[in-house]
Each structure stands twice: as C-alpha cells, then as structure tokens.
Specification:
alpha/beta, FAD/NAD-linked_Rdtase_dimer_sf, seven-stranded mixed β-sheet, FAD/NAD(P)-binding domain, globular, flavoprotein, FAD-oxidoreductase/Apoptosis, single chain, binds NADPH dihydro-nicotinamide-adenine-dinucleotide phosphate
C-alpha cells in the first residue's frame, strides 16, 4: 500500500518533532508523515539520562512531545526506511511499505557503537531510546550492580542517575581521570571526585575489549587485563551517524558518514534535506561540523521544517550543549578538547570559564557552573581571535 505525503520525515526522534512543528509554522494543511525505526513516538532524549531519574515528580507524560496531536503528523513507527528513489520521490521501508513525498527530511540520527562480541540483550543495553529507559528501570528496581561503560555523556549521566537511585555502579572509562579528554585537569579532578564521593567505583585507564552474558549477569573483559562482573551493563561509546540511506541514494556523505547539507540544510537534491545528529552543516561561527546535542536537534529540526515548507532562511544557530552531574552542571559551545591549550578563569561560587585555544583562535568555551554565559561565549568564538586577556570576557 502506498501513502503520499507533502512532507515526509525519515527518523522518529526529536528532530522529527521539531521539524513537524516547524512545518506547521509555515503550512497549516500540508500532510506530514514520520517514519520512525523506534517503536515509540518522538521523545525528549535528555530526560532519559537526567530528569526521569533525578526528579521523582517528573513523569514520562510530563516529558511527552505531543508530535502527532499538535501537528496532525501520521507516525509510522517500528519501520526503517531502506531505500529512497529520488527520481520517483518515494521511499520504501523494512516493513514493505512505500511512501511518496513532495519534500523529504532525513533525520536518522545515529546508532550506538557496539563492542565486538557483546550483543545487545536483556543484560547489555547500548543506551539511547525510551525503550532502553523502560528496560533499565525494570532491571534496576532491585538495585543491582551495574557496569556502566564509557566516560562521555551517557556513561557519566547514567552512572550518576543509577547511583542516586540505589544501584551499585562501576564506571569503566579509558582516561586516567574521568572527563580528562574534555575538561582541563582542575575540572576533570572535580568530576572524578564527585563520582567516587557518590559511591561509584570509577575504573579508569581501561577500554572494554569484549565480554559475554551469562545466566547470572555480564562479564566485561578490559584492556588492562582485568574483568568486571555485574548484573547488567549500560554502554555509551558514542554513535555512528546513520547516513547510509542517503549515501545509497547518491547523496554526499562526509568521511564519518554524516550527510552533507548547505546553509539551508539542503542536500544536492533540492527536495531532500537533512538535520540533527546526522547532518554535516556549515555552522556560521564554528565552520562545517556535525553536532550531536539537543539544542541542535531542536533548532535545526525547526528550521528544516520551515525550509521544507518554503522558508528561504539560513540556519545560523550555533548550538550550545549542557550536562547535569549530581549538583554540578555545565553549558558549553564549540570544541571541548583538553589536548588544546586551555585558559581557566575562576568565577565566584566555584564556577569556572574555560577557553580552549587553537592555533589562532578560541575554538570552545566551557561554562562550568556559570550561568548566562552562552551568548557571550558565542561572541568570543565569533571573533576568531585569541584575546590578549581572558579575565573579563564572560
Ligand atoms: P560520547 O562520545 O560522549 O562518549 C563515549 C565514551 O566512550 C568516551 O568516553 C570514550 O572514550 C568511551 N569509549 C569508547 N570506546 C570505549 C571502550 N571500548 N570501553 C570504554 N570506554 C570507551 O558518547 P555517548 O555514548 O556518551 O553519547 C552518545 C550520544 O548521545 C552522543 O551523540 C552524545 O552527544 C549524546 N548525548 C548527549 C547528552 C548531552 O548533551 N548532555 C547526554 C546523553 C547523550 P574516548 O573518548 O577516550 O574514546
């Protein structure tokens, strides 16, 4: 059976929700279809590792985005788009359906990287979706021992969430000090201490190289020769952008698999756009890049929706990103790479502004427990210079 939509969105995440709402800003009537591989409606991913664990009064209903109700979009869930025929303007899905489109948005996001030999199972969760949240909630009801793998966003936020909810947590990550790839030493040590003080067993300096599930739990084999045994493993090793569908249909993809778009979020095909984690776009301050964070998903998704519906706007929003860990929090813009020169400016109440300095300009700003700094940080980055003094910039 074939359905035709004026606007078809491949991907059922936050970008799809924002895009459908963006379409409605410009077109009240055009038909919208959303094809989502996940079996659940678009859901705000930040809640999956933050508020649903840390705020007892916050429910899934509070988080719900209401995509279909608010926009009239038809959701086709549990279906993966397998092919795009750009000449016929149709797509076909893993469930054997075909859909025609007037204009198409590819918002396929990415898939979690996996450890060879350690397949997803009831005891091994490569954490990304609402369904994973449900499984982890059920599996941690009796406070088991959870091995959390990865020292990035998922690893740190989930380890903090689980230990605060009574589980016993071992966090395995490759760095000597947790966060030291991202933060200067003074901040990374504060992060590491927060986790150990909260009761997390932090196992640094090791990658998980393999493992297996057993009837009783999971066994992880580490690069330092040790083994971690736990009741279950939650893993966050980053994502691979899901650009293969675009590449198969002859669209440009970048070396890491992102889909190349211009400042109108449009591919070389004027009727096909891409947005979100999967889109490699020209950021007007930071230059070409992909950004895997929620502010980008929301703003780029909304812009893509408006552009699909006829807006000639340029996407000129430089996204920020943020994280909450216990009582600490931060916001940031640009590239946080601790191998660069960093300039740390202390602020009252323990806050710090950290500037990441490249060859001839500041490339990233971390606002560690410092509020209202995002717009000033963008100004520092937009200046494309190295200031004489960092003291009073923010
Ligand atoms: P990240 O890229 O943030 O972190 C991956 C981590 O895994 C790194 O610490 C990496 O270390 C480590 N790692 C890689 N391989 C191994 C291994 N074999 N054993 C142990 N550790 C390993 O990805 P996440 O999975 O945490 O997040 C997935 C996506 O979700 C990202 O797109 C992220 O931006 C997004 N997200 C964003 C949030 C936010 O903005 N607050 C919150 C949650 C998710 P190394 O760097 O040394 O390779």
């Amino acid at each position: 059976m074939s359905h035709d939509y004026d606007y078809l969105i491949i991907g059922g995440g936050m970008v799809a929700d924002a895009a459908a709402k963006g379409i409605r800003e410009k077109d009240a009537d055009g038909t919208i279809g959303i094809i989502g591989e996940e079996s659940t409606a678009p859901f705000p991913r930040p809640a999956l590792s933050k508020k649903l664990w840390t705020d007892p009064d916050f429910t899934e209903d509070d988080a719900a985005l209401g995509t279909a109700d608010e926009t009239g979009a038809t959701l086709h869930l549990g279906a993966r788009a397998d092919t795009i025929d750009r000449e016929a303007k149709t797509i076909t899905t893993s469930t054997g359906q075909s859909y025609g489109y007037g204009r198409l948005l590819i918002a396929t996001g990415g898939h979690p990287r996996q450890i060879a030999g350690l397949a997803p199972s009831a005891r091994v969760i490569y954490y990304r979706t609402l369904e994973h949240y449900h499984r982890l909630r059920a599996a941690t009801a009796d406070h088991p021992h959870v091995a959390v793998v990865g020292g990035g966003y998922i690893g740190t936020e989930i380890a903090a969430a689980l230990v605060q909810n009574g589980s016993s947590v071992t966090l395995v990550h490759p760095d000597d000090v947790l966060g030291s790839r991202t933060f200067p030493d003074v901040v990374a040590r504060e992060v590491d201490t927060m986790f150990t003080d909260a009761g997390v067993t932090v196992h640094g300096g090791a990658k998980v190289e393999g493992g297996s599930t057993t009837p009783a739990g999971v066994r992880l084999d580490l690069s330092d020769g040790t083994t971690v045994l736990a009741d279950l493993a939650v893993i966050g090793l980053g994502i691979e952008p899901a650009g293969v569908l675009a590449r198969r249909s002859g669209l440009d993809t970048s070396s890491d698999g992102g889909i190349v778009v211009d400042e109108h979020l449009t591919t070389a095909d004027p009727d096909v756009l891409a947005a979100g984690d999967v889109a490699e776009y020209p950021d007007h301050i930071l230059g070409r890049r992909r950004v895997e964070h929620v502010d980008n998903a929301n703003e780029m998704g909304a812009a893509a929706g408006r552009i699909l519906a006829g807006s000639d706007e340029v996407y000129d929003h430089t996204p920020m990103f943020y994280s909450d860990l216990f009582d600490a929090w931060y916001e940031a813009v640009g590239t946080l790479d601790a191998s660069l020169r960093t300039e740390v400016v202390d602020k009252p109440d323990g806050g710090k502004v950290v500037y990441y300095v490249g060859d001839d300009e500041v490339v990233g700003v971390l606002l560690w427990k410092v509020g209202d700094g995002v717009e000033p940080a963008k100004k520092v980055l937009a200046a494309h210079t190295i200031p004489d003094s960092f003291d009073d910039l923010i």
